[in-house]
Amino acid sequence: MAHIVVIGGGPGGLIAAETLIQSGHSVTVYERKPTLGRKFLMAGRGGLNITHSEDLELFLTRYGAAKDYLEPLIRDFTPTDLRNWCEALGQETFTGTSGRVFPKALKASPLLRAWQDRMEQSGVRFMMQHDWRGWNDDGSLAFRNAAGEAQSVTADATILALGGASWPKLGSDGAWVAVLAQEKVSISPLRPANCGFITAWSGIFSERFAGSPVKPVTITHAGITVQSEIMITANGVEGGGIYALSSAIREDISAHGSATITLDLRPGISIATLTERLQAPRARQSLSTYLQKSGGLSPVAIGLLREATGGKDIPDQSPRALAAMIKALPLTLTAPFPIDRAISSAGGVEWRAVDSNFMLRQKPGVFIAGEMLDWEAPTGGYLLQATFATGIAAAKGVERWLSGQ
Ligand SMILES: Cc1cc2nc3c(=O)[nH]c(=O)nc-3n(C[C@H](O)[C@H](O)[C@H](O)COP(=O)(O)OP(=O)(O)OC[C@H]3O[C@@H](n4cnc5c(N)ncnc54)[C@H](O)[C@@H]3O)c2cc1C
Asked: Is 129 left (phi over 0), alpha (psi -120 to 50) or beta?
């Protein structure tokens, strides 16, 4: 019986551990935090969007450049398989109106509890508060336990499932990048994904509107339009619509120093209808009242118009020009928010650094799973789906490698 060490007690590491115990191996999971799956639990706070119900062909396109790598793994462990897996743990799932799939309990905690119990019953051992630091000179795994003592551990195979670098207080902080770089593993730098962006609000706007949602709104960037809410923050924008476009916006900023998105603040009506409405006599109304009443704009939308004119007057003399501005308001973004506020990370261990078993070419016997690998995806359940699929693929890779195939 081989002894396999899985480092990282998030969904990627746990599903790998479960797959391996079912094949009759001895499995120990090492986790630096006192409890498992902290990011998974956080993901469940607003409703655990475990996967998506859309057609698999469309689903696979969500992984962009990593599609070719992830496709065989997701075909091997599909969204339906993931739903069945939840249901086997007593967590029925449902499809929301957007096609996103959630456990009926919405939270991740009942699922995680049932999962941990099942794994313990099958013999998986858990070593909490063990921080992996790399390898000792003799090749053993180097850990620090809660008391700060060094511990050496040997294994027939190791799976690293250490996550990305977003929300580091939940456990995954990307410290592994330096350890693997020392081993000459090629790593694409970890970058914020599904993140907000900085923009230069005036003090007045920021003070008045930070925390306000802008809705309804459509956001267009590089020819792609999404309709979803924007949240104003003290120094920028975040929220579902921004996250959906965040990968392309981030790359645009990286190439050109800034990116411009275009907001339609009245997506429900045509420019002709809006122009007509704005022809209503303003009489003694203030510009704000007129824009609210005739234009149907919220105070934050009016604030955005004022921000766009940079202190100059909003063109209220020409209903047509005003309608055009409301329907296509440019907003310049200068940098992504820091990775510790992002939902997920782009970048990670490059695909060329692992073989078809997900084993590091530079480090035989060491396999990679989950968000550590170089892929990204929008929110919508795609992150967890790929995390589970890569965890299972790495576990199967271990088995193939151990059996000498
Ligand atoms: C706020 C938020 C909401 C989200 N919502 C969703 C959602 O609804 N749907 C969705 O699909 N995805 C969502 N995600 C993303 C999803 O949670 C992650 O993609 C997923 O958890 C990645 O799993 P993982 O196992 O690869 O890494 P992680 O879950 O990050 O787990 C890695 C584990 O490794 C441990 N670790 C790291 N380094 C060491 C070390 N040196 N030694 C020992 N242990 C270590 C960490 O403590 C952690 O427990 C959300 C993320 C956030 C932050």
From this structure: left
Is residue 378 within 6 Å of ligand 1 at its C-beta?
no
How many angstroms does the Cα of residue 244 sit away from the middle of ligand 1? 19
Fold of 3-192+345-402: FAD/NAD(P)-binding domain (3.50.50)
Closest residue by CA, ligand 1 atom 29:
10
pLDDT digits (tens, 9 = 90+) for 134-150: 999 999 999 999 999 99
Q: Is-contact 20 157, C-beta < 8 A?
A: no
Radius of gyration of the CA atoms of the chain, in A? 24
Which amino acid belongs to residue 148? G
CA 61 to chain centre: 16
User: Residue 193 C-alpha to ligand 1 middle, in angstroms?
Assistant: 13
Helix (H, G, I), strand (E, B) or coil at 255: helix
Task: Quote the distance between the C-alpha of residue 53 and its chain's center.
Answer: 18
- 390 CB near ligand 1 (under 6 Å): no
Q: What angle do CA 194, 196, 200 make, to 5 degrees?
A: 160
- Measured CA distances, 120 to 28, 113, 291, 359 (Å): 10, 11, 62, 26
* Cα dihedral 209, 212, 215, 217 sign: positive
Give the model's confidence band at 312: pLDDT under 50 very low, under 70 low, under 90 confident, else very high: confident
Cβ(196) to ligand 1 under 6 A?
Answer: no
Residue 153, amino acid: V
Give, as one character, the DSSP assignment of residue 349.
E
pTM for the model:
0.95
Spatial separation of the C-alpha atoms in residues 405 and 402, rounded to whole Å: 8
pLDDT at residue 316 greater than cutoff 90: no
> How far does residue 42's CA lie from ligand 1's centre (Å)?
9
Contacts of 318 (CB under 8 A, 6+ apart): none
* Six-digit token string for 29: 């999971």
Q: How far apart are CA 274 and CA 10, in angstroms?
A: 50
CA-nearest residue, atom 19 of ligand 1 = 383
Segments of the chain assigned to CATH 3.50.50.60: 3-192+345-402
